[in-house]
Amino acid sequence: MEKSNRVILDAKQFDLTIKRLAHQLIENHNNFTDTVILGMQPRGLFLANRIQAELLAINKKYKVQVGSLDTTFYRDDYRRQDNPLIPSKTQVDFIIEDKKVVLIDDVLFTGRSVRAGLDAMLAFGRPSKVELLVLINRRYERDLPIQAKYIGKNVHSVTSERVEVSWVENEGEDKVILYTPAND
């Protein structure tokens, strides 16, 4: 039973956060000629597609390519699962060799998913630079020395708490909630 939940981002804040992240990318990548975006499956791809759409809404010349990365078999815990894992689709229809790659995920917590994403990405070439963009950065519980360059919102949480990102494409609405378990 959940003790409390707190909305971290409502739909309006969610939209503003995506707009801000897109503008930060523009500041650092100018015209995106040497930049590609890789969304980590499954939920990082929602954010990657939203970022791409926002960039195009700002200026039609920002035609940044977006691909999707599945990290299932690159995870350090995939053999420890009781049930077989069902991978998502990886689709990278472009060259990342010597490109700037913006790796995107919805939540950064321990860093293990991002590490797996970096390993999966290397199967498609060696980029000149990799930057991490996340909607939510859960601080204080990192297992690996991984840090995002672009952060939608920092959340100060403990291991027992849970952050849930809802996407209009999947759950019917955009919002982020922090769940705190009951102390029963």
UniProtKB/TrEMBL annotation:
UniProt xrefs under Gene3D superfamilies: 3.40.50.2020
InterPro entries per record: PRTase-like (IPR029057), PRTase_dom (IPR000836), PyrR_bifunctional (IPR050137)
Enzyme Commission designation: 2.4.2.9
Gene Ontology terms, MF aspect: uracil phosphoribosyltransferase activity
CDD domains (UniProt xref): PRTases_typeI (cd06223)
Domain Phosphoribosyltransferase: 8-156
UniProt KW Secreted keyword: no
Sorted UniProt keywords: Glycosyltransferase, Transcription, Transcription regulation, Transferase
Family annotation (PANTHER family): BIFUNCTIONAL PROTEIN PYRR
Family: Belongs to the purine/pyrimidine phosphoribosyltransferase family. PyrR subfamily.
Protein name: Bifunctional pyr operon transcriptional regulator/uracil phosphoribosyltransferase PyrR
Organism expressing this protein natively: Vicingus serpentipes
Gene from which the chain derives: pyrR
